[in-house]
Amino acid sequence: MSDERAANVIDVRLGQKVRARRMEAGLSQEKLAELLGVTFQQVQKYEKGINRIAASRLFQISAALEVSVAYFFEGLHPGRADGVAEEGPDGFVYDALATPEGMQMLTLFGAIRSSKLRRRVLDLLRTLTAEEEDETPVPPNHDLRT
Fold this sequence. Notes:
The protein is an all-alpha fold. It has helices at 9-24, 29-36, 40-48, 55-64, 93-97, 100-111, 115-134.
């Protein structure tokens, strides 16, 4: 028997969106916690989906992060047995954005003005992803430039 109060997949997704938006806004967990009147450990638990976010707290979080409450539910669709269908093949985007590396990569990528260079970066990422999936070792002098 499952505990209905336990966090579920929707709680995890909400937490990921809170983290991604917090990082996008340039706030630390400590600063968000201060704005909410909770400990930073509580913010960590919200972001990891360990603790559910009450409606009133979500309202406070949306105000602190300057987004609507609806922002946290964008891309979530009813439809599966567990109550939510992920937002298509790009559903992992929030997972990536919830990491410091993902946010940094997005910020740096956005700073590249040359469309040609952005395409080359994407080509590099595609190559690295394909190589990781194949687990084919890359020769030490492998040149990815075209």
